[in-house]
Structures are given as C-alpha cells and as structure tokens.
Amino acid sequence: MVNTLLEHGANVNYTFEEGITVSALMLACRKGYVHIIQVLLNYEANVNSTINGGVTPLILACANNHVEVVESLLEHGSNINSTVNEGVTPLMIACLNNHVGVLETLLKHGADADMSTKTGITSLMMASRCGHLDIVKALLKQGKSVDFTAKDGWTALMQACFVGNIEIVEVLLANKASASMINIEGRTALAIAESNKHYNIIHTIANHLIKVGNMGVEPNSTGYC
C-alpha cells in the first residue's frame, strides 16, 4: 500500500498531527516497521527531519530498541550525533534505556561516546547512574576517557557510588577510573559511598586507594573499612 501511494505521487515527507507533527518515516521508526521504512527511504524520505525540540527518526528508533531500523537509517545518512533537548544524543538514548544492540550499532557507525549534554553529562555517566553494566562495558571498550567530569564535577565512578552499584564500580576501577577526583561539593567517590551507606563499595574503594597509594588524599573520609 505504501509503495503504491508513493508510485502515484504521494509526498513522502508529508507531515500531519498526531498530538505532535510527525511524518510517515517517524511513525514507522517508532513502531519498527522495517519494510515500510525501506520503501520510504528508497523514495528519499528525510532521515534528518526533526520534531519536538530535535527528535529525529533515529532517536525514535533508538528509544524503541529497533536495531535493524537504526542500521538502515545510518546507512541512509542519518545524523548519528544529533542532539535533542539539553544535548541528549542517540547514543545517550540507548544508554538510558539499556539497549545494548542499538548502542553497539551506533558505536560501529562512529557515534561519539565522549559527547556530553549541556550540563556535561556523558553516556558513560548515564549508564553508570542507571546501573546498566553491559552498556558501561561496551563504552569502556571504545577506550574513551573514564574520568570525564560534568559541570558539577561528578564522574561516572561517583554516579555508580551514589546508586550503590558495586559491579560498575569494580569495572570502572579496573579501567583506571580515578577515585581521588573531587566534585564541586568537595566530595570524592568514597565520600559519596559513605554518605549513602554503601559499605561494600566503601570497602572496595578504600582497598583500591590503599593499593594505588592514594589513601591520604581522600577528603571527607571516615576511614571506614
């Protein structure tokens, strides 16, 4: 049906109201209709059209975990590092939703894992805060900096310490995350773990600091171990 309509001159980029203004491609990307998407792309549907503050077909596909759709959009020139709202990228959308397959596809096509939001939050920080271990591991395999800081001075390690995810803390430390960095509140990862009573993380970080010889530089520490 879609192919027939397009053959008879239907506007492939026509938009209509469905609460917000959307195109056929956007609806198909949200639902994951791969065959329809391919037909629309063959008729040169605009892969970089935007709605609602910058939402693109790619972002809709990423948010709804449609890996094959993401692949197809990227092959047709979709902007892999586009941003929506406060600087959120398609890669960040995958991180927030724990969509590992989407994330791997984006990274394969060159998504920038070091991009940050307007407040300086990176994909790794988001994954660490959300407790998405497989996402964290996939990002670290890219060899990107583990110690980027947001505007408030928080790091991925601090985020993991805040929520109490010991597995992510261990992975970050194994990838040389610094436990000695200080945020704008003057707190370290260890202090954050202490204030939230995550005792297994306190043990892990304290032992790590002793091992690397940095125990003496940690402020606000009770020395719990």
UniProtKB/TrEMBL annotation:
A Pfam family the protein falls into: Ank_4
Keywords: ANK repeat, Repeat
Superkingdom field: Eukaryota
Keyword Coiled coil on entry: no
SUPFAM superfamilies: Ankyrin repeat
PROSITE patterns tied to this protein: ANK_REP_REGION, ANK_REPEAT
ANK repeats by residue range: 53-85, 86-118, 119-151, 152-184
InterPro entries on file: Ankyrin_rpt (IPR002110), Ankyrin_rpt-contain_sf (IPR036770)
Gene3D superfamilies in the cross-refs: Ankyrin repeat-containing domain (1.25.40.20)
Keyword Repeat: yes
Protein name per Swiss-Prot or TrEMBL: Ankyrin repeat domain-containing protein 29
